[in-house]
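Try this one yourself first.
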């Protein structure tokens, strides 16, 4: 499956969100330093661009424009180039002739400051995410080895800046409990995994674990959206041992009738089926 050619709005979004993490202003400000440095290099009498690196950057930009959003079933094919083609721009900056020490010193201070600030911010962000995920993963202490678990992970209907870090958190069921998790899929030519639990039905497909609020279904062009209530109704209870819900939106509690609550934590709920 190859689709979504020349999706300009999405391509532009991937450019300004090339280092997207948690705080919009912080991430966009980081990317904004690249065109500022490029303009400074163009205006400076001491600076120029390396032909080899500038040519490499141009080639990546051309590939970014030509590539579709999805190639052979793998999404975000063009987006993955964005950070590298942006990084090549400051890397291509060099001095025309002799090194101008005051300019070199100023660029070194700016570069070092940017690296320190960015690493500090990313470290803080990852620390927040780690604590949140560790709290959710306590649910696995109540899941026996080899269990078949159907997982539902909540997604926002609107676009949000913060990265959805828990979309594949249930994959830890495979890593730590050697069980089945419906958040990992078999895609021909993409990965070396094979799904052998055929009784999972629709929960063998991509992306069956991601569920949206019910009000999203009423939106235009989203009539067939996989909502949390639809997912709960579709679960074959005799084929799964547990249901793990992570940050799910509001749902009809009647759909969990007959399930046995095993554990509940911050944004995480585990049922025995």
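Now uncover the answer:
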């Amino acid at each position: 499956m190859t689709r979504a050619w020349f999706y300009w709005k999405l391509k532009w979004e991937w450019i300004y969100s090339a280092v997207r993490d948690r705080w919009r202003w912080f991430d966009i400000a980081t990317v904004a330093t690249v065109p500022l440095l490029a303009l400074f290099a163009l205006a400076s009498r001491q600076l120029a661009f390396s032909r080899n690196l500038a040519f490499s950057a141009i080639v990546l930009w051309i590939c970014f424009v030509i590539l579709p959003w999805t190639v052979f079933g793998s999404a975000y094919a063009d987006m993955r180039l964005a950070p590298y083609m942006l990084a090549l721009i400051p890397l291509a900056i060099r001095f025309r002739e002799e090194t101008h020490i005051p300019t070199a010193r100023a660029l070194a201070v700016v570069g070092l400051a940017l690296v320190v600030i960015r690493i500090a911010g990313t470290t803080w962000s990852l620390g927040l995410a780690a604590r949140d995920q560790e709290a959710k993963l306590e649910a696995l202490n109540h899941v026996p080895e080899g269990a078949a678990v159907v997982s539902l992970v909540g997604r926002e209907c609107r676009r949000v800046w913060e990265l959805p870090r828990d979309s594949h958190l249930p994959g830890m069921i495979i890593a730590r409990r050697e069980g089945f998790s419906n958040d990992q899929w078999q895609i021909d030519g993409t990965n070396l995994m094979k799904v052998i639990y055929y009784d999972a039905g629709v929960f063998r497909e991509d992306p069956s674990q991601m569920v949206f609020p019910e009000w999203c279904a009423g939106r235009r062009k989203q009539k067939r959206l996989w909502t949390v209530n639809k997912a709960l109704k579709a679960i074959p209870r005799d084929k799964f041992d547990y249901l793990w819900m992570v940050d799910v939106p509001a749902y009809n509690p009647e759909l969990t009738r007959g399930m046995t609550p095993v554990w509940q934590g911050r944004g995480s709920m585990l049922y025995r089926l």
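Discussion: The mean pLDDT is 89. Helices lie at 8-16, 24-43, 51-66, 82-91, 101-136, 172-177, 228-234.
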